[in-house]
Design a protein that fits this description.
With 212 residues, the protein is an alpha/beta fold. It has four helices and ten strands; from the N terminus they run βαβββαβαββββαβ. Helix 2 links the parallel strand 4 and strand 5. Helix 1 crosses helix 4. The two termini are 29 Å apart.
């Protein structure tokens, strides 16, 4: 399978590329600038907004793992998504977006999200709002094979690769925040399982470490 990972030098992008490569997939690493600490066999240095249908021709799966952590870059989560949707809509290529736990629902009628909770970290709110906008935009595409993959609340770059995780839906089900955990490695395992099993098309899901 041919998989493109946009945001190849971010921590999530690196974990995803490592897992996909380990499984024998052909990986195209895409980033807007090159880093010297990691070498990829197939690398495209190009801004997301400059990507074309030709760049992604023959790709089976596009994973959007773009990192945008500043107010100046938040918009890329939505504008970049829209740009990719224009390229991929009506094709057989799957699109998977790395999401954020702040978008998970905390009430039954789905009117409140985790980011709306009184104790949600204030400095995380701008990014959470940007990700809410991107999820809303993603839901509007009916001719795109999309999946929005949210990591657990505690998303640990240094956590162990246990290979054990479970899939939740759109609701924040943890009894405490400490129970909502997944390592980057296990998130990558879950993402690749979803891709290989061709599951959760046009759905938002959550990957959580440990047994259900």
């Amino acid at each position: 399978m041919k998989i493109a990972v946009i945001g190849a030098y971010g921590k999530t992008g690196r974990a995803l590329i490592q897992e996909a490569t380990k499984r024998g997939h052909s990986v195209l690493a895409i980033a807007h600038r090159q880093h010297d600490d990691v070498t990829y066999d197939n690398l495209l240095i190009k801004d997301l907004m400059d990507l074309t249908a030709t760049d992604l021709a023959g790709i089976d799966v596009v994973i959007d793992a773009v990192s945008a952590w500043t107010p100046e870059t938040f918009a890329i989560h939505t504008t970049g998504l829209s740009h990719l949707a224009q390229i991929l809509s009506g094709t057989e290529t799957r699109y998977l977006k790395v999401g954020g736990a702040g978008t998970l629902y905390i009430n039954a009628d789905h009117t409140k999200m985790l980011k709306d909770r009184a104790d949600y970290p204030a400095d995380w709110l701008p990014l959470a709002d940007a990700l809410v906008a991107s999820l809303s935009r993603l839901r509007s595409y009916s001719n795109l094979a999309w999946t929005y993959v949210t990591p657990a609340f505690n998303y640990d770059a240094d956590g162990a690769a246990t290979g054990v995780y479970h899939v939740d839906g759109e609701n924040y089900l943890a009894k405490s925040d400490a129970d909502s955990y997944i390592s980057y490695a296990d998130y990558a395992t879950g993402m690749l399982d979803i891709i290989e099993q061709n599951t959760y098309i046009r759905q938002r899901i959550t990957l959580v470490g440990g047994e259900a």
